[in-house]
Amino acid sequence: MKRSRKLHLLRRLSQALFLAFFLTMPLFNILRYDSDSKELYILGKVWSLGITDALNNGTLYGSGEVALMIILKAIIPWLLVLAFFPVMGAIFGRFFCGWLCPEGFLFEFADYLNRKILGRRSLLGKNNATNNADLKGRGLFAILAILFYLTVPPLIGALLSGYFIAPSRIWREITTLQLSTGLAVGMIGVTLYIIITSIFVRHIFCKYVCAPGLMQMLFGWFSPKSLRVAFDRKNFSRCTDCRRCERVCFMGVKPRSTKKEINCVNCGECITACREELGSEGGLFSFSFGGVTANHHDTEVPIPSTSQKVHNPRSRDISSHWCVK
Predict the structure, then answer these.
(1) Is 232 part of any domain?
(2) Range of 279's domain?
(3) pTM of the entire structure?
(4) Contact (Cβ atoms closer than 8 angstroms) between residue 27 and residue 158
(5) Is residue 296 in a domain?
């Protein structure tokens, strides 16, 4: 396994693990609201303000104590939840989007299937398959895509319903094929949402609709020290103009641009692509807090034309960055 792809594989692993964690949180009562008992479970315990218990025990001494309990157990925790993505954005930029977001993970898998079936990342995009050999197995991947969308989205819908319906009840209803209205609506709704967004919307949603992503983008944009992908302009002459860094970017970012890219999700795919082109020790991209490049005070260096392109024996086209070939 090539050393240059370790970053790519690490990102895929982090995405898969976080997706599994996100879907199974209700199973372990890490976070869920039981619509039957009207109880909120957090970290295995029922979360309550404690006002009712204090009233029943006669230990509530006045409105001041009630206000304090509300502040400590309701307002402050909620503010901490709301602050998560702004703080993440200010420090790590859109790192969550590129490395952890479950929806982004599914969108990228849809990109991969689209490339294998149609030779392009999106339905309306240009055909970017390198040759006809890349599409030889399109029939098999088409079957895989159909099976995936018939099975995985309903399963995800059932697991997500666990945030509001007791997992034991969901299991009982599925095994007996007697789905309640709530579970049926949850499974059908999630299935339709995943199919529609994965086929037609995808990363447009990430750019313009996703609230957590937009918060990270906003705070990452204004933060002078947020994590960014930096391009080493000091060694720009080593660039072969293969444009692999642009082709692997599913957000449509121009990685070599001197401008601050607001849609960059710090996925690091351009880092991997450049290392594959120039060697694991010679890539021109790297993660940097603040995104300071090697000669950031200089004006933008023009990208070499095709006639000026530096020959590199490692240069080759790539059809996908999803799996290791």
Answers:
(1) yes
(2) 216-308
(3) 0.81
(4) no
(5) yes
